């Protein structure tokens, strides 16, 4: 007659496996939605997956994926592009939906938190994994320049500016601490000049926010930095590119990419020595123009003929609707090409990996690394809700 399970086995979370394996090798790797479902199995599973240490480890295991957003006129979908999934539906799986037609999309992403812009109501902060949301009325009159964790205090802070969202002005910059109950405080540094940047394209790397500065013709390229610990500004050298460029972070290194005017070539640089501001040219990605053009011709019905020879050489009537984003995707670089209602995944060798057709799909410059770690500032914010409107 077989012996029954020992007392230790009977108390284990998963029969036949030690809890160390179940918790720290299996549950810790699950996506947030799946993990939340597992908590409903029994109180022991809920306790094991709710400790602070577990939640930190779970967040660390989550992939950092390019953030997309979907619009349908009445709601905003938060969509991390998961290129690892085998099916198209899973690759473009929404993790949250916010039912407000005035939401314009993510303006910043940091540690699983999203700052969402609105047409008439300024900004709000949300965690799509925990379905927490709150309006940020205190910053309605400001322009967002970046979001960051302040390591000395553990607080999450926003770097703000006056005027409009393309001005980075150290003499007129403000810091707002989420949950502090205090209005934004002004910071200023003598000797700094006003700089034109894209306020929605800041990149957090090595404890600093970075912006590529659009220089006038003949000027040297430059990256503006904001040290999030000392909360001070400086600048660093950037590779010489003929036009605009965008930044990204991968494995603690700063990267930069630019698209040529013909929309055919993407050049990518990485910092070889960040402290000494040394850059190395890494890749030249040839956009698979012929394949993308064939896809567009097969996916679109003929409606009009617009003769614009200087624009139709490569992408025809869609050339002014092309957006290219280079992002790290769980350890590898991804190239996403958005043309009207089609999204194309291209690998670093210029090979077309996959194409998707979805109307009103937006591509952002931000990564999303989901988290179930609780943030103490949420309940202190006026109008705070959890698992309630605007989530649907």
Could you explain how this protein is built, in words?
The structure is a single chain. Mean pLDDT is 86; it is low at 1-10 and 301-312. The chain contains seven helices and 27 strands. Strand 19 (253-259) and strand 20 form a beta hairpin. 13% of the residues lie in helices and 39% in strands. The chain is mainly beta and 392 residues long. The strands form seven sheets. Strands 4-5-6-7-27 form a five-stranded antiparallel sheet, with no helix packed on it. The protein has helices spanning 7-10, 19-26, 32-38, 43-48, 52-61, 88-91, 289-299; strands at 65-71, 76-80, 96-98, 103-110, 113-118, 123-127, 132-135, 143-150, 155-161, 167-168, 173-177, 185-187, 195-196, 203-205, 208-213, 222-227, 232-237, 246-250, 253-259, 265-273, 278-286, 322-328, 333-339, 342-346, 352-357, 361-368, 385-386.
In the predicted model, the low-confidence regions spanning at least 5 consecutive residues are 1-10, 301-312
Cα-atom Rg, whole angstroms? 23 Å
Distance between the termini: 54 Å
Q: Which outline best applies?
A: globular
């Amino acid at each position: 007659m077989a012996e029954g399970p020992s007392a230790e086995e009977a108390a284990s979370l998963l029969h036949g496996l030690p809890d160390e394996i179940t918790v720290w090798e299996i549950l810790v790797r699950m996506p947030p939605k799946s993990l939340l479902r597992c908590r409903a199995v029994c109180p022991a599973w809920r306790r094991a997956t709710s400790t602070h240490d577990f939640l930190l480890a779970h967040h660390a295991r989550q992939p950092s994926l390019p953030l997309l957003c979907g619009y349908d006129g009445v709601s905003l979908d938060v969509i991390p592009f998961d290129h690892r999934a085998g099916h198209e539906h899973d690759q473009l799986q929404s993790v949250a939906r916010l039912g407000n037609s005035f939401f314009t999309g993510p303006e910043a992403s940091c540690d699983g938190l999203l700052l969402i812009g609105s047409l008439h109501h300024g900004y709000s902060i949300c965690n799509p994994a925990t379905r927490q949301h709150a309006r940020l009325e205190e910053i309605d009159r400001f322009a967002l320049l970046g979001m960051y964790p302040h390591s000395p205090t553990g607080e999450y802070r926003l770097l703000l500016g006056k005027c409009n969202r393309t001005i980075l002005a150290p003499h007129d910059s403000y810091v707002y601490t989420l949950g502090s109950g205090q209005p934004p405080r002004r910071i200023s540094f003598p000797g700094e000049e006003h700089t034109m940047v894209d306020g929605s394209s800041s990149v957090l790397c090595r404890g600093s926010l970075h912006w590529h500065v659009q220089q006038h013709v003949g000027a040297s390229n430059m990256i503006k930095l904001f040290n999030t610990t000392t909360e001070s500004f400086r600048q660093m050298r950037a590779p010489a590119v003929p036009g605009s460029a965008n930044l990204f972070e991968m494995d603690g290194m700063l990267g930069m990419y630019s698209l040529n005017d013909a929309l055919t070539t993407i050049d990518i640089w990485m910092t070889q020595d960040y402290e000494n501001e040394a850059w190395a040219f890494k890749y030249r990605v040839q956009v698979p123009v012929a394949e993308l053009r064939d896809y567009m011709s097969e996916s679109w019905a003929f409606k009009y003929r617009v003769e614009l020879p200087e624009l139709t050489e490569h992408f025809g009537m869609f050339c002014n609707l092309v957006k290219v984003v280079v992002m790290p995707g769980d350890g590898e670089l991804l190239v996403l090409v958005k043309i009207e209602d089609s999204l194309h995944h291209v690998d670093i060798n210029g090979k077309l990996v996959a194409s998707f057709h979805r109307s009103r799909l937006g591509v952002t410059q931000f990564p999303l690394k989901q988290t179930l770690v609780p943030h103490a500032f949420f309940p202190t914010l006026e109008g705070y809700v959890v698992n309630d409107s605007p989530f649907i």
